[in-house]
Amino acid sequence: MHSHSSGSHPERRQPGRPQNGDIRACPNCGAASEFSERYRFAGEVVPAWVCDSPACREHDIVRRPGTSISNASRKLIRASKKLRADVSRTMMRARARVERTGVAVERTDSKLQRKPGK
Ligand SMILES: [Zn+2]
Fold this sequence. Notes:
Layout: E1 23-25, E2 32-41, E3 44-51, E4 59-61, H1 71-113
Antiparallel strand pairs: 1-2, 2-3, 3-4
Zinc ion binds at residues 26, 28-29, 31, 51, 53, 56, 58.
């Protein structure tokens, strides 16, 4: 079986993703913090920004998009979808009310515009 794209490799790297050795200012103390794709944290190797300052040692774990979504966040997504449905239903009702009001305003406007006498 041949792959669809001929020649070019499939892009696994996303643009804007930090790379090993990238430096940025630490959000906590402002010192240089270095990005490490293999930072050991809680028994796992995760990509993270690690502050260079020994006094700070702030580590900012980078979550890769598309990696396993936890049950909790999946539940959260479902909840927000339901909420959005409720909101749109309320919005529809509100819009209908606004439309009715809008017609009334238009009528008043045209009455004002069609003032008799010049
Ligand atoms: Zn720091």
